[in-house]
Amino acid sequence: MNVSRYISAKIDGADAGSFTASVTKIAIISIAMGLAVMVVSFAILQGFRNEIQGKIFSFGAHLQISRYDTNNSLEVAPIAGPRLQQQLGRFPQVQYTQPYAVKTAIIKTPDEVLGVVLKGIDEKGGQSPMRQNLVAGKFMAFSDTAASNDVLISRKVADKLRLSVGSEALFYFIQNPPRIRKFRVSGIYSTGLDEFDEVYVIGDIRQVRELNAWPDSLVGGMEVVVRDFPRLDATAETLYEKLPYDLKIDKITDQYAQLFDWLQLLNRNVIIFLILIIFVAAFNIVATIFIMILERTNMIGILKALGATDSQIRGMFFHRGISLTVRGILIGNAVGIGFCALQHYFKIIPLDPENYYMDRVPIHWDLKIMLVLNAATFVSSLLAVFIPTYLISRINPVKAIKFD
């Protein structure tokens, strides 16, 4: 039988109604709330990251490959799409590719005029990630025989031009000679990111080809999704060295640096916050064990007089510390995961899309991170328990028995 564990279990019930019991409850609550806050913080942080990155990647993928051009226009010289896709298919880092082409236009309605960028896409290689941003209507219908006259416009553009699903609008393309096309709004999308919502209209890439008099083999550029996003820089460098010299590669992290810098800042602030929470929880553990030792000084003196070693008495308080740590962790997980589940399924906390790019607080479930947080809380509390227990070796049995 483990004597230290046995005595620890006995005095656990004997503390009821004492000052130690109150302090123990505070320590358990501190650990529970600290862990709950950490679980919720990381779930929300990862949710924000995934939501915003998903919206950005739905427009520009991870990499954009286009031809070098000396002008600053959005409309660049075309490249051979099938040949480039074949070259990119040889790289194991590349997950899939999607051709695109852009064309500046002016939309004119009976009441309003607005400049936009028509981005033509092709779904032959798979469904476009833009589908996830659709909030009204349906996605464009692609035909095998002719270019589709359907377009997707953002909620912001629809409100400015007073357009709705099924509306038709004239698009004026400034070129020589000028061209006019009538397109039908098949759907309305919303990302919450003004960089996209105020500028882009999504259409069929064949419309852009017809306007530019390009054959089917030419595209404006190629969007590339890589398999390992954290290694984006290394992948971009590899592609740059292997692809033809007249092609340039733009990373999504450079194109929208302000958004990725904001996400990085959020991550840094959360880490600092979590370190402070762990420190407070560990401090409470230390204070609680100190109070337990002071209230049990007489008992420590008697146990030493009976022949108990410092290690055995230290183990008794160590088991007490572990017991309240485990209770705090269990309660913290219940509170943190319970709150995340409520937000995930019932969306109880809304957000202003104008400021946060989404209409509710997002939750991302990551079992690995939750296990790491639990382990970090347990280990830090475990180390904190050792600090006050070394005070036991300095307690003199004679003085301890007389201690009042």
Automatic annotation (TrEMBL):
Where is each ABC3 transporter permease C-terminal domain found? 271-397
Question: How is the protein disposed in the membrane?
Answer: Multi-pass membrane protein
Identify the residues that the record assigns to the MacB-like periplasmic core domain, covering every copy.
Answer: 26-212
InterPro entries linked: ABC3_permease_C (IPR003838), Lipoprotein-release_system (IPR051447), MacB_PCD (IPR025857)
The record's subcellular location field reads:
Cell membrane
Query: Keyword set for this entry?
Result: Cell membrane, Membrane, Transmembrane, Transmembrane helix
User: Which Pfam families does UniProt cross-reference here?
Assistant: FtsX, MacB_PCD
The main location class comes to membrane
Q: Where are the transmembrane segments?
A: 26-48, 270-294, 324-349, 369-392
Its family remark reads: Belongs to the ABC-4 integral membrane protein family. LolC/E subfamily.
Mind telling me what this protein is named?
ABC transporter permease
This protein's species is Hymenobacter aranciens
